[in-house]
Each structure stands twice: as C-alpha cells, then as structure tokens.
Amino acid sequence: MRNWAVTPSGGADARVGREVATTLDQWGYRPKDDQPQQVVELLLRSAAQDGGRRVSLHLADDEDRNQVMLLALSHQQDMPTGDDDQVLRDAEHMRALAALGPRDVGVETTPDGRRWWAGLDLPHPGRVHVLDERRPPVFVRGPGKLEGPPVPA
Q1: Residue 139: left (phi > 0), alpha (psi -120 to 50), or beta?
Q2: How many CB atoms within 10 Å of residue 63?
Q3: Strand order of the sheet with strand 67-73?
Q4: Among residues of the chain, what percentage have pLDDT more than 90?
Q5: How many C-beta atoms lie closer than 10 Å to residue 38's C-beta?
Q6: Residue 30: is its pLDDT beyond 80?
Q7: In angstroms, rounded to a whole number, what is the distance separating the alpha carbons of residues 122 and 146?
Q8: Beta bridge mates, 91
Q9: What pLDDT, on a 0 to 100 scale, did the predictor assign at position 80?
Q10: Separation of alpha carbons 18 and 37, rounded Å
Q11: 137: pLDDT strictly greater than 90
Q12: Is the Cβ–Cβ distance between 116 and 43 less than 8 Å?
C-alpha cells in the first residue's frame, strides 16, 4: 500500500499520476497504456474540486486477482450530501472515470470528506494464475519440506 498527500495545484495530479505508474511498475504490473495515470489524475482533480486544502491518494493491490484500488479523499469536512449542481458534477466525473475503463468506480460523502475510487484490473506477467479444473488444488501433491528427492529405482 502507498499513500500520497497532495496540495491541489496545477501539476500535482500529473506528478502523482507518474509516481503511481512508477510504483505499479515496481510492483510488477504492466498496464497496456497510461490508464492508471489518467485515472489518478481524474480522481485527484475530482477530490480537489471539493475545496479542501489537501487531498490524499491511496493505492492498494490484490496480488491474487491482479487488481489495484485507487482512492482519493478530499479531506473537506462537513460537506453537504449534495445539491443539484454537486450531483451533476459528480455524475459527470463518474462518466469520465467509467470511460477510462476501470472495473468499478464510485464516490461517497463521509464526515472526513468525499471519497472517490476506482478499481483496475492490470496485467502482472510475473503472476500467471492457471486453474487446473481436473483436480482440486487440495489433491495436488508435491514434495513436503522434510522430504528428500525421489530415490531412483
């Protein structure tokens, strides 16, 4: 898991987007394009429009499923649940996020601020999960820790 605290400014979203892309590369994920960076930038811009002095971005992954979750928190406390303009802006941001192709997107208002999130399915060449449907994994047996190599007959 990685976190970034960001002061909303003109270039902060692009800088953090590049840092997230670098982190994903270090973790072994190999996105086909710059989708993660675009998603990060839009999440940060969405959270920054809430008017808080800072925004935080949180990145976590699920190695078994080759998925990452990005969450931006606006830290703007005591936000109203949404007037008509707010709801329209949120819907516009959600459509823009969905157009980037994440698995899921969302936004919610909490006492700590608003949370914007997106879940991404990313290729991870180092982890190829192959299911052998012939036998459940319980029945696949290899040598135990204390067993030696097979003795030739």
Answers
A1: alpha
A2: 14
A3: 2-6, 55-62, 67-73, 113-121, 104-110
A4: 39
A5: 18
A6: yes
A7: 37
A8: none
A9: 65
A10: 6
A11: no
A12: yes
